[in-house]
Amino acid sequence: MKIKGGEFIVIDLESIINEDKLKYSLYVEDLKTNKIIFDINSDAEVTSASMIKIFIMAEAYSQISKDEFMSQKIVNIDRDNIVGGSLIKNLSNYCYSIKDLIFLMMNLSDNTATNQLVDILRIENINKFINEEGLKNTVINRKMMDFERKKQGFDNITSASDVAHILKKIYYKDLIDTDASVNMMNIMKKQMDNRMMARNIDKSNTKIHHKTGNIPYTNHDAGIVIFKDVEYLFVMLTWDGVDNIYGRKVIGEVSEKIYNDFLKSYGY
User: Taking every annotated instance into account, which residue ranges of this chain make up the domain Beta-lactamase class A catalytic (predicted)?
Assistant: First the structure.
């Protein structure tokens, strides 16, 4: 089955995605025209993996905007608070600014940095921010690597539509304020995990501002792609996969096809 997006993108998704091997949601929008190219299962609520870190970053900048000294605050990390999925455990320095922690959380997906931010910002404030943005499918219920809370049924949840909402506001410099939005865009441009939406795109002449999420059988990637006057939003969440390799491959192939079709439609 070929699925037509907008007026110019046609993707044979069945040739890329075996739906017996994973479930997915996909949202793509041309940010220059606001034309929605794809909107497939975008309201489906799924485990967020590290995509929840986008919302944590947003609340951090919300609090920084109200307290200019917060960004200079130095956080001392106790060794007992270091969790798995963390670069910090391999470093000798355990003192970081709030902005350092945001960078580590977003670009290295560091779970210790994330948990430190959650403690400082507080879960109730992060959820308040999410609610005030009018998002219905996103909630943070636990810190990273808190498997006991997850066993009790408390998980972090999001949807492609909610992720798209936040990323669009960042792109349009309309999330919190201009400075915060510009800072968040710059942070996402330095993403180190390029195994999914960025894997088959020439990054030498294309800017990709994105955040990934990976846990067993679940792979997500979402971001803003900019090539000359081509600017679009790509969000793809996959879950219930047969493994992690297949989900990453699918996101990479769908992203590549959309990228190439966008460039063709703009005359490149």
Answer: 25-238
